[in-house]
Amino acid sequence: MKFWSGSLLLGLLVVLYLQSCVEGQHMNEPSVCCFSFYKGRIPLQRIMKYETTRSDCTKPGVVFTVWSGKRVCVEPADDWVKQAMDQIDKRALGN
Q1: Based on the domain organization, do 17 and 49 belong to the same domain?
Q2: Rg (Cα) of the chain, in Å, rounded?
Q3: Which residue from 77, 76, 94, 89 is spatially nearest to 44, judged by alpha carbons?
Q4: Are the C-beta atoms of residues 53 and 30 closer than 8 Å to each other?
Q5: Residue 81 maps to which CATH number?
Q6: What order of strands is seen across the sheet that includes strand 62-66?
Q7: How far is residue 33's CA from residue 15's CA, in Å, rounded to a whole number?
Q8: What is the DSSP letter of 37?
Q9: 70 and 94 share a domain?
Q10: What H or E segment, with its residue span, contains residue 14?
Q11: Model confidence over 43-79: pLDDT tens digits?
């Protein structure tokens, strides 16, 4: 009986250790990455805010959040995306 309870305790400790390792790895994951991009244009009036993807994502991207709460990945190199980001920055500064 003593051997069984010691094995059970050891097994639980191993499971807890592995769980903490898995959780620690998820801390370094990007909060948002884009794997495909919306091809159309989003009217500036519908865009509430934007964020850029982190550098450890496989593809760089911009995520627009529209007023309905939907998040849309777009290509950061597109001219309309750059212009929209500039306008949103100006809007945030009150200009």
Answers
A1: no
A2: 22
A3: 89
A4: yes
A5: 2.40.50.40
A6: 47-52, 62-66, 71-74
A7: 30
A8: -
A9: yes
A10: helix 2-26
A11: 999 999 999 998 889 999 999 999 999 999 999 999 9
DSSP letter (8 states) at residue 85: H
CB 29 within 8 A of CB 48: no
CA dist 18 and 61 (Å) reads 33
Paired tokens of 59: 């593809």
> Exposed (0-12), middle (13-18) or buried (19+): which is 85, by Cβ within 10 Å?
middle
Catalogue the E-assigned strands of 1-95: 47-52, 62-66, 71-74
In percent, how much of the chain has pLDDT > 70?
Answer: 66
- With tokens 């990007």, the residue in question is 30
Number of domains in the chain: 2
> CA–CA separation, 69 vs 47, rounded Å?
10
